[in-house]
Write a structure and sequence with these properties.
The complex is a heterodimer of chains A (about 250) and B (about 400). Chain A has helices at about 45-55, 75-85, 105-115, 120-135, 150-160, 180-195, 205-210, 235-240, and strands spanning about 5-15, 20-30, 35-40, 60-65, 70, 90, 165-170, 200-205, 215-220, 225-230. Chain A is of the alpha/beta class and about 250 residues long. Chain A has one domain: P-loop containing nucleotide triphosphate hydrolases (Rossmann fold, 3-Layer(aba) Sandwich), CATH 3.40.50. In chain A, the strands form 2 sheets. In chain A, strands 6-7-8-3-9-10 form a 6-stranded mixed β-sheet, sandwiched between helices. In chain A, strands 2-1-4-5 form a 4-stranded antiparallel β-sheet, covered by helices on one side. In chain A, helix 3 (about 105-115) packs parallel to helix 5 and helix 6 (about 180-195) packs across helix 8. Chain A starts with a strand and ends in an 8-residue tail after the last helix. Chain B has about 400 residues and is of the alpha+beta class. A 6-stranded mixed beta barrel of chain B has the order 2-3-8-5-7-6. Classes of the chains: A alpha/beta (about 250), B alpha+beta (about 400). Chains A and B meet through helix 2 and helix 3 of A and helix 1, helix 10, helix 11 and helix 13 of B.
């Protein structure tokens, strides 16, 4: 298996006023294709900084980052934007959907920045496909304020999927959701990971959410302090089936 | 991203906040409408002046006694006593001169029956209707005979006729009194309206200039000689000749200033035109200020919009928008705002100009130049005032933008 993500001696230093803050102090990590990696750690541990660099939103101070075998750690801003567009699908805690814009248009948004000049009909078709993958075809015309939190996050996942990214980068995706909806959303990640072989990197500080992954790395003080496979993996599908009352639709 | 796509995104973004979009546009609309209306008023005034000058006769030359600056004493034109009827006769002999008329004016109280009216009494010569291309409505102008004998005959202007006689009466043959002396009315002029100087040309009574000199004022000098050149193209040359002849006749030494003034209608028209142009420029620049304020309004709203949509910008960047995509998006929004505003403003300006013509009777002319300039300026305002907020948006760091609350 080839490594999708390979970081070598990653260092990130911020200068805040006079003080240098070392957010990452030399992180080495490899993530294989098809893995479901949970990144855990308390706040200030450097996991957010790690996610920003892995997500190509930021560049490391030193060290290397290979995404799909390509060194992206020294790329220009515009080149990084193109990498984000093509290879990374972001899912945020706060959904970050455009308000007063239909789910379909929200999902299509990354296609507008990819270049290539896709036809409108073609874009719609692609968007409907990924909306189907998250089970929201019948909500394509709804605006975010007409959707529940879980549905909004599913639209966001569909948006992340539309360019067939190498990795799905989820930053606290269940932070704004209740327990049941959280399980459902994690179920979607697990399904995409299992059925499509999409590499998922999940940033979370909740241990029980991290247990939906296949592997967990723990950050502390800018270093990886633990890296182990998850032995008793939670399976969202089974948990949902076991839930006593499926009364309410998401 | 295609231009069409960017435009669509901009329209969508503007459509999300219709009230704000409308109010921001309003600034632009008022600015552009003001510029269009003001320029239309100015252009209209200019056009009507040109028309009046045309009607007065472009080949007219006016020779006035005195100069603005003569012998250290500054006097108004026509107040010096240096011009005499013989000067007019000498001017009439010059080549290229078609008609001349000596002028001696005064104000006087005119009485007819139980009506009276204060007006200008112009002593003039028989060729005046030809010089001014001014036809008579009733009767006839006085004759050379009347001038030679200083007869007490009068020709009424349309306003004076209306003031002194009721519409049913034929004034020709009636006797009026000018400064207590009886004059027989021999004719009534047609209506001429306002002059290029804004005077009512019909509020006048014409009598032979000799009568004014001998019977009314008891003087020998005249105030003006009105001259008409044979062709409009020759007026400047004829004016120069007149000046030379008068200098010789008045024995003015070389180097000494003239004791008279020769002005062509063209010169006077130009002075008037320049004044109107200055006025137009002034009005337009005041209107331009409101356009500027409109532009600042756009900048203000765009700045607010950038701050408000920081998370949206962060998201767009996270999913692959480059700095220039974001810059273009906000710039196009600003330009769309200003162009729509400009378009509506032009239509409104058109309407207001029409309204002014309709209700105030002021002439207006919406020039295509003004429309182009206003529209171009609106677009420029959009780019200029949209650029700073757009650049601010493009310079955002995606991480900070995403975290922004």
């Amino acid at each position: 298996m080839s490594a999708v993500i390979s970081v070598k001696n990653l260092v990130k230093t911020y200068v805040v006023g006079e003080v240098e803050v070392k957010a990452l102090r030399g992180v080495n990590l490899e993530v294989q294709r098809g893995e479901f990696l949970a990144v855990a750690g308390p706040s200030g541990s450097g996991k957010s900084t790690f996610m920003h660099i892995v997500g190509c939103l930021d560049r490391p101070t030193s060290g290397q980052y290979f995404l799909d075998g390509q060194d992206v750690s020294r790329m220009s801003k515009d080149a990084l934007a193109a990498v984000r567009n093509k290879k990374i699908g972001f899912v945020f805690q706060g959904f970050n959907l455009l308000s007063r814009t239909s789910a379909l248009d929200n999902v299509e948004l990354p296609l507008l920045y990819g270049g290539g000049g896709m036809k409108t009909a073609q874009r719609h078709k692609r968007a409907m496909e990924v909306l189907n993958a998250v089970g929201l075809v019948d909500r394509a015309d709804h605006h975010p304020n007409q959707l529940s939190g879980g549905q909004q996050q599913r639209v966001a996942i569909a948006r992340a999927l539309i360019n067939n990214p190498s990795i799905l980068l989820a930053d606290e995706p269940t932070g704004n959701l209740d327990t049941k909806t959280s399980i459902e959303v994690m179920g979607i990640f697990q399904r995409l990971n299992r059925e499509r072989g999409i590499t998922v990197v999940l940033i979370t500080h909740e241990m029980d959410i991290a247990e939906y992954g296949t592997r967990m790395v723990t950050f502390r003080d800018g270093l990886v302090v633990a890296d182990k496979g998850i032995t008793r993996r939670r399976i969202a599908q089974d948990e949902l089936a076991a839930l006593p009352e499926p009364a309410e639709a998401v | 991203m295609s231009v069409f796509m960017i435009l669509r995104i901009a329209l969508k973004a503007l459509g999300r906040n219709k009230m704000r979009t409308a109010l921001t546009m309003l600034g632009m609309i008022i600015g552009v409408a003001a510029v269009i209306t003001m320029v239309a008023l100015g252009t209209g005034a200019q056009t009507s002046i040109e028309a009046q000058i045309q009607s007065a006769g472009t080949n007219m030359i006016i020779v006035s006694a005195g100069n603005f600056n003569m012998g250290g004493v500054r006097q108004g034109q026509g107040n010096a006593s240096t011009l005499i009827p013989e000067d007019a006769q000498a001017i009439a002999q010059l080549p290229g001169v078609q008609y001349t008329a000596s002028q001696s004016n005064m104000r006087g109280q005119i009485v007819a029956g139980n009506q009276n009216w204060n007006t200008q009494v112009q002593g003039t010569d028989v060729d005046l209707p030809l010089i001014r291309s001014w036809p008579l409505k009733e009767g006839a102008f006085f004759t050379p005979q009347d001038v030679t004998t200083a007869s007490k005959v009068a020709v009424l202007g349309a306003v004076v006729r209306d003031q002194l006689f009721d519409p049913m009466t034929n004034p020709v043959g009636q006797v009026i009194r000018i400064s207590h002396q009886p004059f027989t009315v021999v004719g009534v002029m047609g209506s001429k309206g306002q002059s290029g100087m804004g005077q009512d040309q019909d509020d006048v009574v014409f009598v032979p200039y000799t009568t004014v000199l001998k019977k009314l004022r008891g003087i020998t000098n005249i105030q003006q000689v009105q001259v008409s050149a044979a062709s409009a193209g020759e007026t400047t040359k004829v004016a120069d000749n007149i000046a030379q002849v008068l200098r010789v006749r008045h024995k003015i030494q070389p180097g000494d200033p003239d004791d008279f003034m020769v002005r062509t209608m063209e010169e006077m028209a130009n002075v008037r035109k320049e004044a109107t142009q200055t006025m137009t420029a002034l009005l337009a620049s005041i209107a331009g200020v409101s356009l500027l304020v409109g532009g600042i309004g756009i900048m203000n709203i765009m700045l607010v919009s950038v701050t408000e949509r920081t998370r949206e910008i962060g998201l767009r960047m996270a999913i692959g928008a480059r700095g220039r995509d974001v810059l273009l998006q906000f710039l196009v929004e600003a330009v769309v705002l200003s162009l729509f505003g400009g378009g509506i403003g032009i239509a409104l300006g058109f309407g207001v100009a029409q309204g002014v013509t309709l209700w105030q009777g002021w002439p207006t002319a919406v020039s295509s130049n003004a429309v182009l300039v206003a529209f171009g300026f609106a677009a420029m305002t959009g780019v200029f005032f949209g650029f700073y907020p757009a650049r601010k948006a493009a310079a955002l760091d995606p991480i900070d933008a995403l975290r922004f609350e």
